[in-house]
């Protein structure tokens, strides 16, 4: 972020023990103090992520805090999921031309949406635990849209501010007979990172290169220009069923090249304009 010219573009990371950082070129600025301006809540907690819901008001404070914050070497921070409290994750099956995620080959005319548990969210530094030995677990790298405002019906999906930002996601998928939502919702099976890049910095989400490599070998490569249902269509479809709240996550599907993960693998995911994240499998 260029904090001195009112430039609203931001890359926001959560790091170490729930610290808030702004990624600026090759450094991270710790702006955690700004979180004190978030409203304090008594029980029950709101259904939205507090930081994403208040990002508009906080932006000037974050930019001001950046000017005073010391630079931290990004190599020295542990990146957590950029959205701390998503209410829900909406994902979609077979949403790329040539998709080879499970069940692909019979392309649905409307987006085939499903839900993942919010508790499956983890950050790159948390690592990916394969908790059920002997079960096949696949990587699916995906562009993730972070909802920025309440969206109560499909027609609201075109309103400004509907997407607060984007990040990279891995929709980790255990194969097998259980319900899809369960198999994809094991702890840590929605890896998000490396940070939230605000929507204005990303521009058109329909023209981003997407890549995933395992141990240095590229397995998935594609472009969001090959999405069958783009971000606005997915938001509209989801909002036809459920009210989307700030911090909710819409995973957009995975390009071809899905494959299994093993203990000890190092996964590198890269999406144009959103950065690169490394995840160790254990
Ligand atoms: Mn997926």
Keywords:
32% strand, 5 helices, mainly beta, 282 residues, globular, 12-stranded mixed beta sheet, binds manganese (II) ion
Provide the fold topology.
Elements: E1 11-15, E2 19-24, E3 27-30, H1 50-53, H2 55-68, E4 71-72, E5 79-80, E6 89-93, E7 112-116, E8 121-122, E9 137-139, E10 141-147, E11 163-171, E12 173-174, H3 180-183, E13 190-198, H4 199-202, E14 209-214, E15 217-223, H5 231-239, E16 249-251, E17 259-260, E18 266-271, E19 275-280
Parallel strand pairs: 6-16, 8-13
Antiparallel strand pairs: 1-2, 1-5, 1-13, 2-3, 3-4, 6-7, 9-12, 9-17, 10-11, 10-16, 11-13, 14-15, 14-18, 18-19
Task: Give a written overview of the molecule.
The protein is mainly beta. Helix content is 12%, strand content 32%. The chain has five helices and 19 strands. The strands form three sheets. Strands 1, 2, 3, 4, 5, 6, 7, 8, 10, 11, 13 and 16 form a twelve-stranded mixed beta sheet that branches. The chain has a four-stranded antiparallel beta sheet with strand order 15-14-18-19, with no helix packed on it. A three-stranded antiparallel beta sheet has the order 12-9-17, with no helix packed on it. The protein is globular and about 50 Å long. The two termini are 35 Å apart. It binds manganese (II) ion (MN). Manganese (II) ion binds next to loops. The site of manganese (II) ion (MN) has 8 residues, from loops.
